[in-house]
Amino acid sequence: MSILTVKNLTKQFGGLVANSNIDMDVEKGSITAVIGPNGAGKTTFFNMVTGVYQPTSGDILLNGESIVGLKPHQVTRKGIARTFQNIRLFGAITVLENVMVGMHTHLHGGLFSTIFNLPHVRKEEKEARKEAYRLLEYVGLESLFNEEAQNLPYGAQRKLEIARALATQPKVLLLDEPAAGMNPKETSELTKLIYNMREELDLTIILIEHDMKLVMEISEHIVVLDHGEKIAEGTPDEIRNNQKVIEAYLGKGAAATAS
Amino acid sequence: MIEQVLHTLPQVLIDGLALGAVYAIVALGYTMVYGILELINFAHGEIFMTGAFVGTAILLTFSGLGWITSMPAIITLVLVLIVTSVLTGLLGMGIERVAYRPLRNAPKLITLITAIGISFLLQDLVRFITELKNGNYILTGPNLFNKQIGIEASSILSVFNDASVKSSFFIVLGVAIVMMITLDFFVNRTKWGMAMRAVAQDRETAALMTVNVNKVIALTFFIGSALGGATGVLFAVQYGTIDPYIGFILGLKAFTAAVLGGIGNIRGAMFGGILIGLLEMFAAANLPIVSHGVLGAEYKDVFAFAILIIVLIFKPEGLFGKVTVEKV
Amino acid sequence: MKNWLSTIQANKRLQAIMIGLYIVVTFLSLYLAQKSVIAFLLLLASLLLLYFTTFSNRIKWLVAGLVMVVLLPFAASQGEAYQSYMEVATLVGIYIAMALGLNIVVGMAGLLDLGFVAFFAIGAYTYGIFATSQANNFMPFGHYPLSGGSFWVFIFIGCLAAALFGILLGIPVLRVKGDYLAIVTLGFGEIIRIIFNNLDKPVNITNGAMGLASVQPPKLFGLDFMYPSQFYYIVLVILLVVIFAVRRLEYSKIGRAWKAVRENEIAAQSMGIHLVRTKLMAFAVGASFSGMMGVVFAAKQTFVDPTSFTLLESITILVMVILGGMGSVPGVILGAALVTILNLQVLTELTNWLNQLSLNGVISIPDALSPAKMQRFIFGAILILFALYRPQGLLPAKNPVFKKEDLTDTSGHPPMNAGVQKEGAQHVHLDS
């Protein structure tokens, strides 16, 4: 069953076409990778799915419902969460509070009930704190919960972004280069985490990645973009041997030698 | 009513041009600094004001020494302009070095706060120095170029009233045009000008291309402040009386001009300045008429602020600027 | 020195003795002296010392309450300078509330508002117009001035009016990019002042530059509130409500949303935070504090005119926030107290003292340099020095620190994610 469908999606910035006629079907519960050389338009694609950019044309359907035209915070409420290529944490607040921000859409304290410290708000906050801690345990960051987010080491910051995204209780999780800058040990932990998230939290995962080992190991379906267009799609094996993909990454000469 | 508007039109045009020239050059300072550092240099209005005071002080000293009568006025003015612009240029450079450079990597909020602090500091500094020397913080300069020239606009179209203009008007306009042309030439045709444009586009890459970024930024501040200071002198010559608080409102309007023309765009700033000057004079002359006395002349400031707000809300890139998209 | 400090911190009894002694000494000095500004300020400073002690919050509030409600007024009442002390204290309270409001906008939500005094003006004029005969000029019904009894209702009306205005102001202004927000709010602040200064035609609503005089004093059970010492208690109560509200908001979903917006707007949006609504709420809440105090101010001064609401005022409040610590409630309280006392007491006392010295021929400071006039210079210097060397302020904002025991689930309550989890799933803990 398809949870996310993208039809003919195009994005133009002035004269530059960043994405051109992208078609994609994402199966519920699958792990899909979007790959391509730098500048291929992968993050632009994510940005359109999450409502940061409005497509020039085309449609995006979540569970059959079009989400084009929705603002980012509305897209999140619909059940799509993301992490960022360049880490975007809330640096000056604690790790725990970062995750709690993710819970924003599920908390109900209004202005007056907060000011008057009504019991249901107090209870909600307490439960939210506990839930945030549980999420930190899930990604392995629970020992750092009182630390300021900007003081965390790089790998921990990436994990925190994931925990924060999970806090929004998404149906679809978009990970933008989650393994960037990670060493092999961290990458293998990340691989385990992605599998776990898919299994235990009933998530559909789409990731942009350059780490080919991770991509080949973990994805069930790969979509390849180059110069804004989809040039190939299929299973890891199919993509590995695809002429166009090799050409895109390594140039025409390499494609010739490979075949 | 239209008749009344037309009556005053020639005078409005002349006053508007004079004021607009002042706004235009001050706007240059804002737009150049914003282009290079993405910082609104709040203190720039005060640099203009300092220029006005320094220039007037020098003129008063000259007249005290009896030099004014012995030299042709235009030479005196040029001398004063040169000295003042160098001094204010150095002041601007100094401010950048001491207050803005250390904060180059700090959040924007902090730098804005520093700029506000400098603005206040300068205002009071000038105030008490003037008050010490003069007993009062309002300063009146010696009269240069005071001859009133009549322009018989009524001979063009009978509905126009005759306009009268001080000879200083031509000087102000002339000097302003010379400054604008020189700057335009400098920025577009010289090596350093190109360096300035490069740093404004992409600081890191410019540095990789062996551009000394710190020097370029210092140069930008020097030029912007020197021009601002020189304009201050022109302003003092044109309007005669100055106080330490003229920089604030004028700075705001000049900033409006810079935004209107497209922040970072030098030619846009010049255009914006003239436009705002004309609009303001037009409003001052005609608002009371159009609103039958309800909206007084003080509302001309509201008018300028309103333009600023409307531009920033509906067309923040200004008339000649480009829309920038933030990379996510 | 460090050892000495840590022994004190460890020993609560020692702290209690030291602070108790301090309060007693300053109380007595104030009580016995005819006019001692220093004793007054020192007694106030006991609150700062209290802040640094390690007693529980409840005890700290109790002692603070004792000092502010009983000891300070009582001691001050024995001298001839009673009303002037209370005047200072009242104004400090008013400014603290306003600074707390600006703290929400600038410190928590990261929105640099340079026209903040406009909300104060709204509150003041709201009461001023209806509590003088001014409203007769344009209101089709009712007889004005309203009696002093309406003051209490007007505190709420002023609060709402300012909040509403904050929202109206925010709607256009928040679409503007970060750097420009400061200038736009500055522009609006000036526009409001100019409008109030000119709103005597066509319909006379604010009486323009002449201002509104003879504002009705508040009346409760037949008692007219006319002296600073009486307004002191009104301000104290409102201030307590404000502090309570800010504390609650700071560590709530709303407070976190503000901080998230400040730290990274784009990420905040991805967390489902509605940017405009969150920012508007910051404006509205911040404005409402100023609105309430504006009403009190109008009643206290019995005169309202546009000269109390200039850019200098907005910058003054900003200095309070920067000095104390952006985003920090205790910091801003300290900052507001320091700046107000500086303005009202220190500068004037210093000027008087220097004048005395010149009169006695000891030294001669020219009038131009008199400290009372050097406000802009001092504020400018504070802003620059703090921005360069201590941007976090005197008492920097502190993040909440939780205890692990409070966070681990012992109640058997299912986690919120339960609906999303498949049946019988186990958590897998990763090695970190």
Automatic annotation (TrEMBL), chain A:
Keyword match Methyltransferase: no
Keyword NADP: no
Recorded GO MF terms: ATP binding
Family annotation (SUPFAM superfamilies): P-loop containing nucleoside triphosphate hydrolases (SSF52540)
InterPro entries: AAA+_ATPase, ABC_AA/LPS_Transport, ABC_transporter-like_ATP-bd, BCA_ABC_TP_C, P-loop_NTPase
CDD domains: ABC_Mj1267_LivG_branched (cd03219)
ABC transporter domain boundaries: 4-252
Pfam families: ABC_tran (PF00005), BCA_ABC_TP_C (PF12399)
Keywords, in A-Z order: ATP-binding, Nucleotide-binding, Transport
PANTHER family in alphabetical order: AMINO ACID ABC TRANSPORTER ATP-BINDING PROTEIN, CONSERVED COMPONENT OF ABC TRANSPORTER FOR NATURAL AMINO ACIDS-RELATED
Protein name: ABC transporter ATP-binding protein
Organism whose genome encodes this protein: Anoxybacteroides rupiense
From TrEMBL, chain B:
Membrane-traversing stretches: 12-35, 47-68, 74-95, 107-129, 167-187, 216-239, 245-263, 270-290, 302-320
One BP term from GO: amino acid transport
Superkingdom of origin: Bacteria
Record's keyword terms, sorted: Amino-acid transport, Cell inner membrane, Cell membrane, Membrane, Transmembrane, Transmembrane helix, Transport
Entries under InterPro entries matching the protein: ABC_transp_permease (IPR001851), BCAA_transport_permease (IPR052157)
Pfam families: BPD_transp_2 (PF02653)
GO-annotated cellular components: plasma membrane
Entry membrane topology: Multi-pass membrane protein
Principal subcellular localisation of the protein: membrane
Cellular localization per UniProt: Cell membrane
Name of protein: Branched-chain amino acid ABC transporter permease
Taxonomic classification: Bacteria, Bacillati, Bacillota, Bacilli, Bacillales
UniProtKB/TrEMBL annotation, chain C:
GO cellular component, one term: plasma membrane
Keyword Amino-acid biosynthesis: no
Compartments (UniProt record): Cell membrane
InterPro entries in alphabetical order: ABC_transp_permease, LivM-like
Parts of the chain that traverse the membrane: 12-31, 37-54, 61-79, 85-106, 111-130, 150-171, 178-196, 231-249, 280-299, 311-344, 377-395
Record membrane topology: Multi-pass membrane protein
Swiss-Prot/TrEMBL keywords: Cell membrane, Membrane, Transmembrane, Transmembrane helix
Organism superkingdom: Bacteria
Signal peptide feature range: none
Protein name per UniProt: Branched-chain amino acid ABC transporter permease
Taxonomic lineage: Bacteria, Bacillati, Bacillota, Bacilli, Bacillales
